[in-house]
Specification:
The complex is a heterodimer of chains A (about 325) and B (about 475).
Chain A (H helix, E strand, L loop, with lengths): L2 H30 L1 H9 L2 H15 L7 H21 L4 H28 L5 H19 L4 E3 L4 H7 L1 E8 L5 E5 H19 L1 H11 L1 H6 L4 H27 L1 E3 L7 H11 L11 H20 L7 H21 L2
Chain B lengths: L4 E4 L3 E4 L5 E5 L6 H8 L10 E3 L2 E3 L3 H7 L2 E4 L11 H5 L6 E2 L2 E2 L1 H14 L15 H14 L4 E5 L7 H16 L3 E5 L3 H7 L2 E6 L2 E7 L5 H9 L3 H4 L13 E6 L2 E5 L4 E5 L6 H8 L9 E4 L2 E3 L4 H6 L2 E4 L3 H5 L6 H6 L13 H14 L16 H13 L5 E5 L7 H16 L3 E5 L3 H7 L2 E6 L2 E7 L5 H9 L5
Parallel strand pairs in B: 3-10, 3-11, 6-9, 9-10, 15-20, 15-21, 18-19, 19-20
Antiparallel strand pairs in B: 1-2, 1-4, 4-5, 7-8, 11-12, 13-14, 13-16, 16-17, 21-22
The chains are: A mainly alpha (about 325), B alpha/beta (about 475).
Chain lengths: ~325, ~475
């Protein structure tokens, strides 16, 4: 493989490793603290879960700008449903579980709607989901009367900060360090998605539709169903992500929840090496993209840099990632 | 007299005289298009020089070639449908006055040029509204507008009806009188002999000969092009077995015909005659309500390629790179794509996919080094085999092959004919769409001829001759 191609294939991974080493060297034990490393994986788990679904949509040649608003809408549904179920005498665990399933259902439904208009209404995905960006947020605001919806089930927080104890790890007060459920869900979703993309018939169809939609149609693939499916899967994952996010906050601010999730998710996908033109992409790249973005914001806090710079730094990272990918293309 | 000269393609030297009409003939893949791409600045020669009026020139891009007075009229015309004729003629060289476009001036100049080329339309007509012949005139007008001294025409009559072609020939002779050199590429040897002064024959990337058109005859040229008598080029025909038709069209999109298992049926006609559209309607890509399709005598509705495939009817597109294959996907993935279900309902068996691709590689002699590598790395003829393998995978009963030998080299062409005959021998009904008459004559048992979207005739056996097909295709009563 030529050097330019190696850079294009693994550029994001190199960048992640490089930043990691820089952190190890300059922050030493502070950085290597087990809690800190755990936070790197769990901090943006919600965005990560959405980014995985977004990878499918982008590989299939689409885009979804509505995920942030959709997450707010699903988050509102989770809490309202959970409060209602718990209020009607259901045990907190069951109430949370049912509400989570409900949120995923609502998300999948919203995604189905997006996918339906894109695939059968033949409207550009950008436009359809821009509509969703406005519309789903509005539904969230209506559900929350424009403000915050608080959870009345304290068990939710236990889920948000619970997890599996990391073996041998002790926190400052000598207690166990939990590997959060959010990170576990993120990792499981990523592994499943990688399997679906690379090993299943559905995954192959996603790639074929994104690489050349008309050729896929001529190859007797039902391209409309495939496109409908990727948006629906993404919607379901947005619902799941909203549960993860809501559990951490124990509430949802219907005006602020999920803001810019679409940008972060798309950025992670692109940084990870998935082509915005579709037909080519990888799940592990998206995971690297999410971790890279998390690490950068982590560093900005750690080095006491004015957090207002964060957007600019991210913007530059995205641009560099895209430029490297395109540069590699020309050297092929 | 000066001789603008070209050295290209395996050290070949061809001299084009100023003011001559020079025919260039050769099979697909003979090097015509490479030569023309180099001359029109699209591609760079790896060695050799182009001498223009005795001076070596280097042509950088189409613009560079145009600056040297070399213009090319492509088969697929490069016009902007949304703009009018004058805007197209001056595209990229707009005349402006005080920072504003001088539309009046451009329309005036264009009108003058249109008069010179005897165009029957005005300068302010939208190009999208013109017929193909009209668009071709706009391309020629563009060349006249830049005062091109060399005009390269690639298969200009492939899209024209007979009267349109006749007026094109008239225009060519007028341009010639003005001193324009015309390089005329065509597969139609009769017309090349008729309108050219001299004819160069290319074969497999090398120069074969340049002959005086006076006294040249088409069958001699054809022999030179192929390098062996035409008859040998096609496998000997095997009589099609008798039997009930497998596929019948009854007033389907204005076409009624049938094809039997084991039969090779040609679908002839000029480019734009509606053959591809008919094929696409059959497999359900183009929805249509008119007429019926019967398979084994039973009426069926094939509403999508998937539906058609499950009924055993498949279509190999003429647009191999755009529709027939996924160029960015691996060879294996292309081969198994239409039949993916056979490799796993949910989880795919990669090993089985690879084995299947290996076996097609062997059966069809697909020359692809790396089966994992993308299909774009494979040559045209082998891409075509991959596209066909994709459909053979589904075990079709009727296979529609649209221009199966377009853009493949001579050797691969022959292999393709052998393959088609083998498929027919195995009992498959093969419908071959082709714009190359010798192909229809050499390969097919029977031919359906289409013109302007309708079936206009059917020829078989003795009646199936080049002249008869051409007359029907071009819409002129047989002599």
């Amino acid at each position: 493989m030529k050097r330019a191609n190696v850079l294009r294939e693994y550029g994001a991974l190199f960048a992640l490793v490089l930043l990691f080493v820089i952190n190890v060297v300059t922050r030493k034990a502070n950085f290597l603290q087990i809690e800190n490393l755990r936070n790197l994986v769990s901090q943006d788990a919600a965005v990560g879960i959405i980014a995985i679904g977004m990878t499918f949509v982008i590989i299939a040649g689409g885009i979804d700008l509505s995920v942030g608003s959709m997450a707010a809408m699903c988050g509102a549904v989770v809490i309202l449903l959970m409060n209602k179920l718990a209020g009607s005498g259901l045990s907190p665990n069951n109430a949370i579980l049912l509400a989570a399933i409900g949120a995923m259902g609502i998300g999948a439904l919203a995604g189905l709607f997006n996918g339906f208009v894109v695939a059968y209404g033949r409207v550009a995905a950008f436009v359809v989901t821009l509509g969703g960006l406005a519309g789903f947020r509005s539904i969230a605001l209506v559900l929350g009367s424009g403000g915050e919806i608080r959870s009345q089930v304290s068990r939710l927080e236990d889920f948000g900060f619970g997890g599996i104890p990391i073996p041998f790890a002790k926190n400052a007060s000598g207690g166990p360090v939990q590997f959060y459920w959010s990170a576990i869900i993120f990792i499981v979703v990523a592994i499943l998605a990688g399997f679906v993309l690379n090993k299943t018939r559905f995954g192959r169809y996603i790639i074929a539709v994104g690489a050349n939609q008309r050729a896929a149609e001529y190859s007797a693939i039902n391209t409309q169903t495939v496109r409908l499916a990727v948006y629906t899967v993404l919607g379901g994952l947005v619902g799941l992500a909203s549960v993860v996010a809501v559990a951490r906050m124990n509430s949802v601010g219907t005006g602020s929840a999920g803001l810019y999730y679409e940008l972060d998710a798309i950025a992670a996908v692109v940084i990870g090496g998935t082509s915005l033109r579709g037909g080519k992409g990888r799940i592990w790249g998206t995971v690297v993209g999410v971790l890279l973005l998390t690490l950068i914001s982590n560093m900005i806090t750690a080095y006491h840099i004015d957090t207002n710079w964060q957007g600019l730094v991210r913007g530059i990272v995205i641009l560099v990632a895209v430029l490297i990918q395109r540069g590699g293309k020309e050297n092929e | 007299m000066e001789f603008p000269a070209v050295r290209a393609l395996d050290g070949v030297t061809i001299a084009f005289e100023a003011g001559e009409v020079h025919g260039i003939v050769g099979e697909n893949g003979a090097g015509k298009s490479t030569l023309m791409k180099i001359l029109s600045g699209v591609q760079h020669a790896t060695s050799g020089t182009i001498l223009l009026d005795g001076e070596p020139v280097s042509l950088h891009g189409v613009r560079g070639a145009l600056q040297h007075g070399i213009a090319m009229i492509h088969q697929e015309l490069n016009l902007v449908d949304e703009l009018n004729v004058a805007e197209n003629v001056f595209l990229g060289r707009e005349i402006s006055k005080g920072g504003m476009l001088d539309r009046a001036k451009m329309v005036e100049l264009t009108t003058d040029i249109l008069r010179q080329v005897h165009a029957p339309f005005a300068a302010n007509v939208k190009v999208g509204q013109l017929s193909i012949a009209g668009k071709q005139l706009v391309e020629i007008a563009k060349a006249v507008a830049i005062d091109a001294s060399i005009l390269i025409m690639d298969e200009p009559t492939a899209v024209l009806s007979e009267p349109e072609a006749a007026s094109l020939f008239e225009l060519i002779s007028r341009l010639k009188e003005r001193g324009t050199t015309i390089l005329y590429i065509s597969h139609r040897l009769t017309e090349v002999c008729a309108i050219c002064d001299r004819i160069t024959v290319l074969r497999d990337g090398s120069w074969v000969t340049t002959v005086d058109a006076n006294g040249a005859n088409p069958s001699e040229l054809a022999r030179l092009m192929v390098g062996r008598p035409i008859r040998d080029f096609y496998p000997a025909k095997v009589a099609a077995p008798d039997g009930k038709p497998i596929l019948e069209l009854d007033q389907f999109c204005g076409a009624s015909f049938s094809v039997r298992p084991g039969e090779i049926l040609g679908l002839a006609g000029l480019v734009g005659a509606g053959r591809t559209e008919l094929a696409e309607a059959i497999i359900g890509i183009r929805p249509t309500e008119s007429g019926t399709i019967r398979l084994n005598g039973l009426p069926v509705k094939l509403r999508s390629p998937k539906k058609a495939m499950t009924h055993g009817v498949v279509y190999v597109s003429e647009d191999r790179k755009g529709l027939g294959l996924h160029l960015s996907l691996g060879v294996i993935q292309n081969v198994t794509l239409a039949n993916l279900r056979a490799y796993g309902r949910i989880v795919l068996n990669h090993q089985k996919e690879r084995e299947s691709a290996e076996s097609w590689k062997k059966d069809l002699d697909i020359r692809a080094g790396d089966l994992e590598g993308p299909a774009i790395n494979v040559s045209g003829g082998n891409q075509q085999k991959i596209a066909i393998a994709k459909w053979l995978e589904t075990k079709p009963k009727v296979i529609i092959l649209d221009e199966p030998t377009r853009g493949v080299d001579v050797g691969a062409k022959r292999e393709m004919y052998n393959l088609i005959q083998k498929l027919a021998g195995d009992g498959m009904a093969c419908i071959v769409i082709s714009s190359e008459l010798p192909e229809i004559l050499g390969l097919c048992h029977r031919a359906i001829i289409m013109r302007e979207g309708k079936v206009v005739g059917q020829l078989a056996g003795e009646e199936l001759s080049e002249e008869a097909v051409m007359h029907l295709a071009a819409g002129v009563a047989a002599a």
